[in-house]
Specification:
Distance between the termini: 32 Å
Number of helices: 9
Oligomer: single chain
Strand order of the largest sheet: 1-2
Strand content: under 5%
Number of domains: 1
Number of strands: 2
Largest sheet: 2 strands, antiparallel
Shape: globular
Order of helices and strands: HHEEHHHHHHH
Low-confidence stretches: none
Length: 247
C-alpha cells in the first residue's frame, strides 16, 4: 500500500509534464535529432521529480557529496524495471535512432572489466574523502534489505541514462567528432544536464556539478570505446556504491 501511494504521488507530480511531452510528440512530430533532445528533457523530469518527493536525497557539506535512495525496496525495484521498459520501448520504436544504441563495442569481456575499473575510478575520490567522516554526516547507514533493490535501481535506472548519453548523444557526437572527443563531450553534456538538479532543485551546487563531470567523462570514455553496457557498469556501479552505505 505504501509503495502504491508513493507511485501515485510520483505519477501525479510529473503528469502535467508528461502530458505536455505527449502533446509535443503528437503535434510537432520531431525529427530524429530533436527526439533525442526531447528524450533527455523527459529523463530530467523523471529524475529531478524524485527530489522534492523525497524519493532520493542528495547532500553536501560544501566539499563532499553523498547520496541516499528511497527506503521503499519495492519502489526501487519498480523504478528500475520501469527504466528498463523505457529503454526497450525506445529501442524498438525509434528505429531511426536505433543505430546509436551500441550495447557493446569490441571485446565484451574487456568491456565489462573496463566498466568495473571505470566504476572504481569514479568512487576513488569518495573512498579517500569519506575516511574519518562519520556515516551519520553523509547520509546515514543503509539497511541490508535495501542493498539488492538499490542495485536494481542503480543499474537499470542508469542503463536508461547511459542509453541516452552514451547511446543517442554519443552516437550523434561521433558523426561530428573523433570518438574520444565525442566521449569527452558526452560527459560534458551529461554534467550540463545536472545544472538544475545542482542549483535549483537542490542547493548542492559545485560538488554535484564536479561529480557529474568527473563521472560523465569517465563513463563517456568507457562508452565510446566499449559501449553502453560497460558505461552502465561504470555509472550504475558508482551510484550503487555511493548510495548503499557500503563504505
Amino acid at each position: 500500500m505504501e509503495t502504491l501511494i508513493t507511485l501515485s504521488n510520483y505519477v501525479l507530480y510529473i503528469l502535467p509534464g508528461l502530458i505536455l511531452i505527449a502533446v509535443f510528440f503528437i503535434t510537432v512530430k520531431p525529427n530524429p535529432n530533436l527526439r533525442i533532445i526531447a528524450y533527455i528533457f523527459t529523463f530530467v523530469l523523471l529524475r529531478d521529480a524524485l527530489t522534492p518527493l523525497g524519493l532520493w536525497r542528495l547532500g553536501s557539506n560544501g566539499v563532499y557529496l553523498w547520496i541516499r535512495l528511497s527506503e521503499d525496496p519495492l519502489f526501487l525495484i519498480l523504478f528500475g524495471v520501469f527504466s528498463l521498459i523505457i529503454v526497450s520501448i525506445l529501442y524498438f520504436f525509434d528505429q531511426e535512432n536505433r543505430n546509436h544504441l551500441v550495447w557493446f563495442h569490441g571485446n565484451k569481456w574487456m568491456g565489462v572489466v573496463v566498466g568495473v575499473v571505470g566504476c572504481m575510478m569514479v568512487i576513488l575520490p569518495f573512498l579517500i574523502i569519506y575516511q574519518g567522516i562519520d556515516m551519520s554526516l553523509r547520509g546515514g547507514p543503509v539497511s541490508a534489505t535495501l542493498i539488492l533493490p538499490i542495485l536494481i535501481f542503480a543499474m537499470f535506472g542508469n542503463l536508461l541514462e547511459e542509453g541516452l548519453f552514451r547511446g543517442y548523444v554519443l552516437g550523434f557526437l561521433k558523426t561530428r567528432n573523433k570518438p574520444m572527443i565525442a566521449g569527452l563531450n558526452s560527459g560534458l553534456i551529461f554534467a550540463f544536464c545536472h545544472i538544475f538538479l545542482a542549483l535549483t532543485v537542490t542547493s548542492i551546487g559545485l560538488p554535484l556539478l564536479l561529480f557529474t563531470l568527473w563521472e560523465g567523462v569517465i563513463a563517456g570514455l568507457v562508452g565510446t570505446k566499449y559501449g553502453i553496457i560497460p558505461a552502465t557498469l561504470t555509472h550504475g556501479g558508482a551510484i550503487f556504491f555511493l548510495s548503499s552505505g557500503l563504505f
